[in-house]
Amino acid sequence: MKRLSQNVVCLAFGCASAISSLGQASTDIESPKHKAWDMLVTAALSKVTTERTNGVRALGLLRDTPRARELAENALKDPKPEVREAAATALGQMHATESIPKLEDALVDPKIRVVMAAAHSLRELKDDKSAYAVYYDVLTGGRKTGDGMIAQQLETLKNPKELAKIGFSEGIGFIPFAGIGWDAYRTMHKKDPNPVRAVAATFLAHDPDPATSKALVNATKDKDWIVRAAAVEAIAQRGDPSLVPKVQLRFSDKNRKVRYSAAAAVIRLSALEPTKTTKNRR
Questions:
Q1: What gap in Å lies between CA 17 and CA 3, rounded to an integer?
Q2: HSE-up of 24 (CA within 13 Å, CB side)?
Q3: pLDDT score, position 258
């Protein structure tokens, strides 16, 4: 049994590091901490996909723990997308800034659910530029720069059935929209693909790129009300009074939630104009 445990650790962390820790492992083989690590390592190396997914996801609780980071980084190469997604999420949750390059590599994963998880983690780790590029692609269905999503991913964005497979609890989390509320939550849990784009719009609120302003304005005319409302709220948060005329057009939106969000956005943005004028006079 002891040899089996050692072999598992060797596979997970590399034989060199495992051998160096054998002395300590032999002294606390029955300790709760050792048992806990044995559980996580065994799960991460399991032949069962759900076991690997759940084990890797739990690693997100372990900040400043190189062993956990190594396990999660290795899981980014797992053959199953749900495991890679869990790994990308865990690295963000554990604030593994050392893993930023590996998360950036994950942005070209063939599965968009992995890309979204990696983008969300990069945003958590303050690598905003990489994350914004992904959210822009999701919102618009096109590329922002030459190093954007690969063709296969963009095709996924155009396929509602595939896009609907992206779960909000898997990588991008639930975002509480101030002006949409409970209806948005219920819609998201119907596996409607449009809320994924709504989340992308929300995350773009503070992207300073002027191209994003145009993308958000276009999104206020989207056929889905959740996307329109999210775009309006994102524009409000950007703090650009020049966009008031564009937002005002939503006063006649057929959805009342969009109309009310637009009204609040115009009030918020209009309040910023005197401040800017005052600064210019000074």
A1: 16
A2: 7
A3: 86
From the list 196, 192, 89, 88, the residue with the least C-alpha distance to 140 is 196
Number of H helices and number of E strands within the chain? 19, 0
Between CA 163 and CA 188 the distance in angstroms is: 12
Which strand (E) or helix (H) includes residue 210? Answer: helix 210-219
In the chain, what are the domain boundaries? Answer: 81-159, 176-282
Tokens (6 digits) for 20:
């160096």
- In the prediction, which pLDDT does 190 show? 55
Inter-residue long-range contacts of 125-128, CB under 8 Å, 24+ positions, other chains counted? 125/92, 125/95, 125/96, 125/97, 125/100, 127/100, 127/103, 128/206, 128/207
In 60-127, where does DSSP find H-type helix?
Answer: 66-75, 81-93, 100-105, 112-124
pLDDT, the chain, mean: 76
Mind listing the pLDDT tens digit for each residue in 163-206? 555 544 433 443 444 444 435 545 555 555 557 788 888 889 88
Least Cα distance to 226 among 250, 252, 197 occurs for: 197
Angle, CA of 138, 143 and 147, to the nearest 5° = 115
Q: What is the CATH number of domain 176-282?
A: 1.25.10.10
